């Protein structure tokens, strides 16, 4: 370990901002030109939405150490809130609906984060399920939320920012990319601020954090609020840019677990990790279905696919927890270091 | 409204709630067994329950006699339990409890997927030979099946209590539950104990799976009964069998009463979250839970 | 008599490098360090910074502390020693508000508390370290130490994220002060390492740094030398002394190893079975028959070599 670290210091160190800037330039400048509609619809849009949700959950779980099993509820809250703000508030620009939706999700997050002031660990994890079931129930039960549509289905409004229509696949991709980039940048700033350090302090040793004067209760609720805000906005992207038509059942417990899996696989307490995890979670079912169809032919129907997906996903989680507890990010960094080292020694 | 309050109906609802609470307790006990020995909240308990019920039903449907199917399923559950302990939990020894929890989450995905991949996804009926005709006890109608389930659950608890009180391995279990390091130090064989506990949890899963399967039909949603057991555990403490029983009864009763008496004001369907709210409100009033689980940290 | 020994303690205290006394960190406004002028008059010294009055604490029938009286004067290094299970850690947990005593009061700078408000501790000028390491493993050494200043951060998260308002100044200030403390405790070489990856002895020192960075008036050290080698112990002792001299911090220190504290402390209180059996200068304690009995009388209790 120590040896690897010293390798790193001898490698040419690029400024930290180079990689993300290059990536963004590629995402804005190149991808829209070369991407197929399949790439946008089936891969990039869910990747962006889930990646952002992963960033949100990582702030709460990875950084602040409060395990939540109710992420999908906050996605749903965001999606339905944005829908209603857009529908019911005359003249509110789309971006206003999205911000307000995030605030609604944050408020719900604070309410369901209240038990964290008294409960820890498993007790807290289980109590976050209350959010999951309650929100899903409320959205299904009260048809006001879906403007009285059947079984709570909502249709996304037309996307446009400043008069610029963004309804095509590329437009929705750019819409999602912009929101995700901004929020991710802010999240990155947050985790490297004093507030972010307070999150980690509470995660690592709550008693010590309290004694050195970190306002533990306030900080925990803040973590719930910020996390829920981001997850709520991710829900808006999921509903408005990716699926365009959603129902409360789409934000079920499995979705919550999916987001938790994203941060476990990608790497806890890592902003990049959320996107690594989301990429794997989005791409792997597609790959598995191709592979299964290729190997087994007709036997590999959708039922079998669904089951084998569950099995492989479960196995992946366990493998990562055992072999690479710091997630894909750690794996990636190690590979990159090796490559840099190999490149240097030639 | 108060004047013509129907006490007989109230008692029927209450008894029905208590009896279904017994079913919750049964699932919760499976969690407690594992939590006490290895500090893991085993989310896969529901998946195990599904797997047990599905295996049993499929064996019976293939013509295996009832008793033999029971024994075979039990053997399979024990094997799965031991395999989980070996391949998943042992490599994760000394990891934070929450990591272990996430591993069992992954485990539940594997088991659910495997159960349905092996036995198919269709719904199976399960007939335990108990007719579900209401029985009249003192003017109150009670489901015969509920009584049967309660009796089985009580028998199960009695069996486990006897096992842990009077057998050598059971006593070791209690030592491990008290202090894992001390138990290791005095040379108790932890792997054997863990294997036994996972076997016991497998047995609980089998019994609970059969009872719930007979009630709901054996299908995927059976694994969701864990979600009914979790608030019970929050209420009673993850490490208390007594807590699981009392918590189950409380949740079962309050849930049924709420559904019948106040559910309409909410538009119904409140059972998906009501139990969680009961558990949370209870913990807010009494943070140490039903039986004072130790939440004090050492500094 | 008590007056005389307080005075003695003060004299001792000022013997150590009087010229650097209460210097504080360069950028610190002096106001935080004045107000307690330890080398001042005897009358000042007689008003204790910390006093315990009739503290009693028991856990389910087991008496951890019985009727403990203790006073700590500004600027002194006060050791509390005793065999294992004597109640030392319970005492420090009472002082820092982690435990609420069943009986008695804690006086901090003249204010009486039934239970010391833990979340206000830092604002009251009290910092502590822990017997079992309580660093934030996932933070760098520098960030760990900077977190010792988190209690006075007044910018909110939005300001910090956007880098506006007072957040920039605060961030710069706390990092630079943390950097100075690291230098003071000879930790600069490891400032960017994750705290959890450091060897045990260094982690203990980082904990001291985190407690010191707020320049507390009262510093509680819970077995700061436990598990250290002899040379690490004497190094730590000199850091504690230097910290007191530089920041005019009053130190209450719990130790199992009597030898180390003899040379370090101004006064020593000895606990045994939750009772205070002696409270005097190191020399007096060394010759106190009850103390010798507590440590040596039952020889088998002393197997880990913590002798006088």
From TrEMBL, chain A:
It holds the Pfam family BPD_transp_2. GO terms for cellular component: plasma membrane. The keyword Cytoplasm does not apply. It is a multi-pass membrane protein. GO terms for molecular function: branched-chain amino acid transmembrane transporter activity. CDD domains: TM_PBP1_LivM_like (cd06581). Keywords: Cell membrane, Membrane, Transmembrane, Transmembrane helix. The keyword Transmembrane helix applies. It is found in: Cell membrane. Transmembrane segments: none annotated. InterPro entries: ABC_transp_permease, LivM-like. This is Branched-chain amino acid ABC transporter permease. It comes from Mesorhizobium jarvisii.
Automatic annotation (TrEMBL), chain B:
It comes from the Bacteria. This is Branched-chain amino acid ABC transporter permease. Keywords: Amino-acid transport, Cell membrane, Membrane, Transmembrane, Transmembrane helix, Transport. The keyword Cell membrane applies. One of its GO terms (molecular function) is transmembrane transporter activity. Its main location: membrane. The keyword ATP-binding does not apply.
Automatic annotation (TrEMBL), chain C:
Keywords: ATP-binding, Nucleotide-binding, Transport. Pfam families: ABC_tran, BCA_ABC_TP_C. The keyword Transport applies. GO terms for molecular function: ATP binding; ATP hydrolysis activity. It comes from the Bacteria. GO terms for cellular component: plasma membrane. InterPro entries: AAA+_ATPase, ABC_AA/LPS_Transport, ABC_transporter-like_ATP-bd, BCA_ABC_TP_C, P-loop_NTPase. This is ABC transporter ATP-binding protein. It comes from Mesorhizobium jarvisii. The lineage of its organism: Bacteria, Pseudomonadati, Pseudomonadota, Alphaproteobacteria, Hyphomicrobiales.
